[in-house]
Amino acid sequence: METSAHDDLPTPAQRALDALAVNAEDQAALDTLAHSDVLVPVPDDAVDGDGTDTMLALPVLEQAGGDPVVPVFTSEGEMTELLPFVSRYHLVPLAALAAHWPDEDLSLAIDGSSKHGLTLTSHGVRTLLAR
C-alpha cells in the first residue's frame, strides 16, 4: 500500500489533543475534538445474524488498575498501533458518541497509546464533549 506525504500530517483531532495536553481548558481544542470523527473498533463478535456489523457495540478494555475504558482513535494508524488485530471500525462523530455515553463509570481513551492520547472519565465525556 502506498503512502503519501499527507499520511504523516496530524489530523485536526490530533492537533486538538496536542493542545489539550498543554492546556486542558483550551475551549477551541475541546470544540475541535467534539466535532471530530473517531474510529470505534468493531469487536469480532459484534455482528448481526446475517454477518454484518450494523450495530455499534462499544469495545471495552480493562486499564491497568482494572477500570473499564473504551478506546477510540483519530486515524487508522493510531488504531493499528494499539490494536493491530482489529480490521473493522465505525466512523462516529465524537460529540454524538458522547451525547449517548452510558451513565456507568466508563472512561474514554482517545489515541490511548500515542504521545497525544487523552483519557476522559465518564463525567468528562458527557460534560466536555457532548456539544
Descriptive overview:
The strands form 2 sheets. Strands 2-3-5-6 form a 4-stranded mixed beta sheet. The protein has a two-stranded antiparallel sheet with strand order 1-4. The chain has 5 helices and 6 strands. 31% of the residues lie in helices and 18% in strands. It is globular and about 35 Å long. The chain has 131 residues and is α+β, with helices and mostly antiparallel strands. The longest helix has 11 residues, at 12-22. The protein has one domain (9-129).
What is the N-to-C order of secondary-structure elements (H for helix, E for strand)? HHEEEHEHEEH
Q: How many individual β-strands?
A: 6
Mean pLDDT: 82
**Strand portion:** 15-25%
Query: How would a textbook summarize the main sheet?
Result: 4 strands, mixed
Poorly predicted runs are 1-6
Work out the radius of gyration.
15 Å
**In DSSP terms, counting alpha (H) and pi (I) runs of 4 or more, how many helices?**
5
Q: Helix- and strand-based class?
A: alpha+beta
Count up the domains: 1
Q: Which strand order does the major sheet show?
A: 2-3-5-6
* Straight-line distance between termini: 37 Å
Question: What are the key terms here?
Answer:
SseB_N; SseB protein N-terminal domain-containing protein; two-stranded antiparallel ribbon; globular; 4-stranded mixed beta sheet; single chain; 6 strands; 131 residues; disordered N terminus; 5 helices; alpha+beta
